[in-house]
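Summary for the lay section of the report: proteins are chains of building blocks that fold into shapes. Here we show the chain for Bile acid:sodium symporter and then a coded description of the shape we predicted for it.
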Amino acid sequence: MARPRFAPDNFTLMLLSTVALASFLPASGAVSQWLEVATTLMVSLLFFLHGAKLSREAIFAGIGHWRLHLTIFAATFVLFPLLGWALRPVLEPLVTPEMYMGVLFLCTLPATVQSAIAFTAMARGNMPAAVCSASASTLMGIVITPILVSMLLHKSAEGGDALQAIGKIALQLLLPFVLGHLLRPVIGGFISRHAKRVKFVDQGSILLVVYTAFSAAVISGLWQQTPLPALLGLLLLSSILLALVLVITSWTARRLGFSKEDEITLVFCGSKKSLVSGVPMAKVLFESSAVGAIVLPLMVFHQLQLMVCAVLAQRYARRPMHPEAIEDGAVPASAAPAAKAETAPAK
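The coded shape description reads as follows.
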């Protein structure tokens, strides 16, 4: 029996189960300390493997479309933060102040890679440009996100300055990514042949980070400080934010005269926020007891963007196919992978 269109994917169900486990059986004491070390190692391994999977050919194929890339980066790192800041007086009453900090953090994050590319493929968009923009967004976020967090939240990594935060993130995320990419000629084939095991590292690392983060938050009283109306308000807030970005990016694409394939790439790359990059960054940028509340808006937005963009991708895919779309790198909807979950920050 086919899964309903709006049903959560398997990874989202695992995320919810992990939050439930941390709520009833939070890690503490020595176990928590060991999990912190394991989490750091798993996340570094995650970025190492995805550095090894990143194809230079795909990046070079899409790098020349600079107007589209600049527009996507502006949506990711300018439009989102501006909306989060400008709408704060209207939207913050829907949630708790701590949860709105998580919304602002969400607005500073880079775009997804796997789901953005998969949705672009389903909708027959500009695939090389999507690969280039999404991959570059992940790398740029390592520098830009800590700076935006410092500006929007007046806070940086556990009391340090933005440069310290950038250095810590670069050490844990960027360095393994670069090392993996440099070793791609040696290990790239092995990783491609064992894609299922790499996916286990993807999902396992995020689940481990979520468990440790929510364990610390639960011990600090997260659920006592988060009423049900605030959770419902968070869903409404996320819907408003996503709707605004989708409308603005599609309108901008048409105003700038982009082709339909480029519009699709802008919509799907410019409206995404990365759970895979965001959770490890939150662990670095915020105190352990605050990470649970910080990543909660990201988890809600993550599932919402998947469901909404799945519907949009199907609508785009129903348009007549033109030969130019194939030449530009679009993929027919029948050949596109199912985009139900974001499990990797780079391809």
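Put simply, here is one thing we learned. Residues 288-317 form the longest helix (30 residues).
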